[in-house]
Amino acid sequence: MIRILIVDDHAIVRQGLKQIVEENAEMRVVAEAANGAEALRKMREIGCDVVLLDISMPGKSGIDVLKQIREENLKLPVLILSIYPEDQYAVRLIKAGASGYMTKESAPAEVIEAVRRVAGGKKYISPTVAEMLANELGARDEKLPHQTLSDREYQIFLLLASAKTPTQIAEALALSVKTVSTHRHRILEKMHLRNTAELMHYAMEKHLAG
After folding, report:
1. Mean pLDDT per segment of 10 residues, for the chain of length 210 residues?
2. How far apart are the first and last CA of the chain?
């Protein structure tokens, strides 16, 4: 039996995933969590074989949760299920220790196959992500400006690129507007951009805008 912990801040998404998973006799959802702190607590208390993790959550993001899981349990498979296209987050998360990356548009059968694969100690990587990883290895010494950003900066970069205001970003990530503005300043500085309009243009040019 593959024991699964589902982590997503939307109850409807959790319910849908649970239904997909439990239609398979060899899998069972042993716990659900609506945020990062709850996910880490349930992982420690209940235990599981696979974590299905969303990355876009208020407070402690899925990226932070992934890093914490890796610190505490190096071998626990973490499968990312995200609204973001592969080219926005997949490589960054695989390099951070995720066992696989899927979008929430994936078919139920694909989710089941991915869970089964990562539970068996393998990676679940699409051909697109495999190619992106190969390209990244080939250009290891030539980082693009957005690749120099920290995980939190990159998260805010994507939200700015999708025309979200600092206030909207602050609400979505449970941060203060001042903190978001500080991150925005650092992002522009690191990427050698003058303003948000240039940032949005860069994101569109690199096919990073959602």
Report:
1. 95 94 93 93 92 86 88 90 82 89 90 95 86 69 82 92 93 91 94 93 84
2. 37
- Cβ–Cβ under 8 Å, residues 157 and 199: yes
Per the listing, tokens 């609506």 go with 34
Q: Which CATH number fits domain 145-205: 1.10.10.10, 3.40.50.150, 3.60.10.10, 3.10.310.10?
A: 1.10.10.10
User: Can you give the pLDDT at residue 208?
Assistant: 85
The structure tokens 């089964």 sit at: 116
Q: Per the structure block, which two tokens stand in for 48?
A: 């599981």
Total Cβ atoms within 10 A of residue 13: 16
Cα atoms in the Cβ-side hemisphere of radius 13 Å centred on 152: 19
Task: Decide if 112 contacts 120 (C-beta within 8 A).
Answer: no
Q: pTM (2 decimals)? A: 0.73
